[in-house]
Amino acid sequence: MENIERIKLSLAKEDCKAILISSPVNRLFATGFPSSAGMLLVTENKAWFFTDFRYIEAAKIAVSEHAEVILTTKQWSYTEKLNEVFEENGISAVGFEDGTVTYAEYKEWEEKLTAELRPNQKFLQTLRAVKSESDLDKMKAAQRIAEKSFEEILPIISTDITEKQLTAELISRMLKNGADDVSFSPIIVSAERSSLPHGVPGDTKIGKGFLTIDFGAKLDGWYSDTTRTLCIGQPSDEMVKVYETVLEAQTAGIAAVCVGIAGEDIDNAARTVIEKAGFGDCFGHGFGHGIGLEVHESPRAAPGHKDKIPSGAVISAEPGIYLPGKFGVRIEDVIRITENGCENITNLPKGLTVLG
Questions:
Q1: Are 180 and 286 part of one and the same domain?
Q2: Residue 67's CATH number
Q3: Which of 67, 115, 214, 230 is the S-S candidate for 47 at Cβ 3.0 to 4.6 Å?
Q4: In a 3-state reduction of DSSP, which class is residue 258?
Q5: Among residues 85, 4, 81, 90, which one has the least CA distance to residue 38?
Q6: Contacts of 273 (CB under 8 A, 6+ apart)
């Protein structure tokens, strides 16, 4: 619930002193309470959580210490209950999540709500970019589950199983090890298919050459994200060069991280290494993205992203080189920006692992 208090403190510095939070991910961020229905209204002094009969009992247990819980019904809808609170508390303007509210919702609110609607998606994006210690602990727990599961599947990797079968094994291990879900459908591609950055696991058996495994676990709403590239059989000199270049690029990008650096400057530190090695055209995505309650969120470490990265932000570090029709390599860790640089919360080794 500390995030509700963070929202209150931040609203005190805003022109608009109230915000309406309707998206599930931002409700979860603010309250820690998962629900498929509900709205949270926060001012600099107080908070209200509106929900229907399905969640009212659970909400009173989980949320009432930090927000007044209000029941909505068919007779007393969200807009009617909101208007009551607006009137009682002198709220004449309210920020809303213009990046997630549908046009139909906006038109209904515009017609029925008595407070002026002000777009303010960036307010919550900025807050969510900085993870609290509690947030980070949850992300680390998800990361540990993913890493344990990855280590458990290493002994079964061979050319006798398919990419889909290995994917099923990895998903199963993450769930058995305590994950609520996977962060995303794992990307497991081998041999020449490893050149596909977001390739879909196929029915073909794992081939000789590089095997890329991009995976993550979800726990209590928080995500992990990791990629490791293994080699099935002995790698060629070219494969070793590409792998070592990607690892050097990741190291350079991580080394460049500091509070206040622009996302594009982190990316450039890694991209320069890849370009100097002659593979500039083979790195087509950004160095990293924010991760937390969504797999991809703010901030970004990619070309064109000039926003400064704040202390407490958590981003991926995932440069890659992809040679179409031949092979690809991506190495991904998750790092937290600190006042002194960064903390790598990924524990898996990064040296080239050769199997078989």
A1: yes
A2: 3.40.350.10
A3: 67
A4: coil
A5: 81
A6: 245, 248, 249, 252
Segments of the chain assigned E as strands: 18-21, 39-43, 47-51, 68-71, 93-96, 116-119, 181-182, 187-190, 209-215, 217-219, 222-223, 226-232, 288-290, 297-301, 314-317, 320-323, 327-330, 333-338, 341-344, 354-355
CA gap 195, 207 in Å, rounded: 13
CA atoms within 13 A on the CB side of 239: 22
Residue that the structure tokens 């709220």 belong to = 91
Residue 180 structural domain: 133-355
What is the length of the chain? 356
Token pair for 266? 């982190």
Judge if the upstream peptide bond of residue 319 is cis by omega within 30 degrees of 0: no
pTM confidence score: 0.92
pLDDT of residue 235: 97
Structural domain count, the chain = 2
Q: What is the mean pLDDT of residues 46-50?
A: 96
Task: Assess contact for 323 and 240: CB atoms under 8 A.
Answer: no
